[in-house]
Fold each of these.
Amino acid sequence: MGFFDIMREYWPHILICLSVLLGVPAALHAVMTKDDVRSAIGWVGVIILSPILGAVIYDILGVNRIRRKNIDIRRERVNLAEHYHPDDYDIAATKIKEKFGNGWASMRRLGDKISPCRQAGGNAVTILRGGDEAYAAMLQALAAARHSILLESYIFDNDRMGEKFVQALAAARARGVAVRVLIDAVGARYSVPSIVHRLKKEGIIVDVFNGNIIMGLRLPYANLRSHRKILIIDGAHAFTGGMNIREGFCASLYGAKAFWDTHFHVQGPAVYDLFHAAAEDWAFAAKEKLDYTKDNGAWGLTAPRLKPAEGLVVRIVPSGPTDRLMENNQQMLIGAFSVAQKHILIKTPYLLPDRELISACVTAARRGVRVDIIIPEHNNLQLVDRAMRAQFYPLLRGGCHIWRATGAFDHSKLVAVDDIWAYAGSSNLDARSLRLNFEIDMEIMDKKFTANIAGLIRAELANAREVTMAEIKKAPFPVRLYNRIIWLASPYL
């Protein structure tokens, strides 16, 4: 009996065997590795109800392969303490209590447990609004670079703004500056052809995070992305925030339809922590450790300029799908919301919080804290907008206020609590940012700086409309059903 005869005769038995051989290990893996019971039950259901196919989908989307690789990188380090800012810039817990009160001293203790980076004084952080302002500052810094440039971005488009960055990086390389560029493998595909090929043509050392950029070929970990945006110049100052490199954020190139975003220029010991986050990602992707320990080496860190007692108190908060970083950003937000006394202001382009974060917002609102959440009236991702509408109801019912801002789409991710605590960076309030992506954010305790962030958010309220419970209820049932169906896929949007 030939092969095809056997297949024709016994194909049901073969399919059953394959279902068992693939499904049982996949289901066991989901049960043993998923921390969220809902996630574990969901994946087991997919595996059981979709024989063979369910196990394949789980292997592609459900298995976190980064965790073990990241642990291996960390084990190679000789001394973890060397990877963060100098101890003499640490802010004492007593200073936080004295300046901001017991609640924020508790927040300090929480941050110490969550983030691998400590709170540091002696920082200066400049707010950069919009691509014209942010890109101009970044390009100026690239032109002045003397020793090293480390750039990590989720998206680096092959467009007119991308070309300006390529030229600036190429000019720096020609001056003898050490240049490294890391782009996420998914983000690199936003342009066809990818900017990676253009960078390589200029002789710039570039790599992609977690995959490759050949269209249609291997990208097995597309759900685990680096959403970070970090630029370090000469180990002395940095840029970070929510802004990718795209002409669509630049009004001078894209006109009135340009998107908005908020980025930050950072000086001080926080630059050390930003460097080590980006350097760890580079080591993971390119298998190259950047030696910052040499006294006069290209990657030497020279960030502090102010005295420890001066400037802003900043903590860098890296998060991502590893044991050390999992949900760091969400835990910081929940902690801050729990100590809020007056108001919580949130500005985010994508509002898809999980039950825990919704509960934290609602609990604060029911304690008498004013909770205002601002999202764009018109989203750049229509499916995400549909899913967001499905989550308005529990927030409104709990006493939170949701506003839809008119005007150009704003990609900013900003939080201000009680004009004391600010949180800003790359994290959206959705499952992808809070569980799947590698993100980088800043926690800043400073009344003047936080008041400025709160001012940016409140300025949007003047031209925003409030979403009401009546509006939610009067939507036709088919529309509400469609939104809920899209919401089911929200962890992967």
Note: The longest strand covers residues 120-129.
Amino acid sequence: MRRRHEEEDHVNHEAWAIPYGDLITLLLAFFVVMYAVSSVNEGKYRVLSDSLTAAFRGTPKATVPIQIGDKVVKVQRDDTVAGITPTQALKLASPMASEQTSLVEQFQRMGRDLEKDGGDGPGLRQLADQVELAMAELIEKNLVTVTRKPLWVEVEIKTDILFPSGSAQIQPEAVDILGRIASILEPLGSPIRVEGHTDNQPIRTLQFPSNWELSAARAGRIVRLFEERGIGPERMSVAGQGEYQPVADNATPEGRNRNRRVTVVLDMPPALKPRQELVVPAQAGPAPPPASRETAP
């Protein structure tokens, strides 16, 4: 008999393509779902959520409008009702924000009170009167100028009598003038800030690359002299203003001469400051227990 040849099984080498295609399809669907979830519109999501809730739990008895966006809440503050968002409500509820707002309001109120009082308060007026009386001779000689500001007193000294051009070394004839000013300021006890100012003429030296360094060096040199004459260093500070706080036009020699100056800023002495200038609100905490009405035997 003729033998029947056994047929060999055929091996399909492309069988992997079917599960691979399924995997790619599932990954595509997964990323589409993730993208859709990541870009949910909050208003539409709230509408969908409320609709599903009504469908599964029954229609609410009362008709309530659906709010899209930030819900407006009512906050009672200082006997007034204001419509604000939840973010603004949190800011108003923050003790830190409340304290900062209170401090700013108090500073503004102090400034308005001082302006109504003619530009200075009683303690500041007393300080200005003492300075003007003690420096009357220097004021008459046009060596210094005393200016009253709402919160401080300025004593302006022209630098053409203090320093040579482009230098921070005090001229010998100016040492006596500064010594007299120091003797006047020492017993007052007021904080002192010495500010140096220049004109807009550029300076580029090894010691002073710009007017910043020159103005600060001049102010620092005067502070050192004041310290040598007995003024406590803890009362003083130095500020170099450069050419950026002019009081006159730098286009003329007269204006540049006015801008080259040293200003001694005097704050109100602690002894003359009115009590309870600022009322700092206490941090929120548990309320103290009510006082007992029982009297001691």
Note: Residues 120-272 form a domain with the 60s Ribosomal Protein L30; Chain: A; fold (CATH 3.30.1330.60).
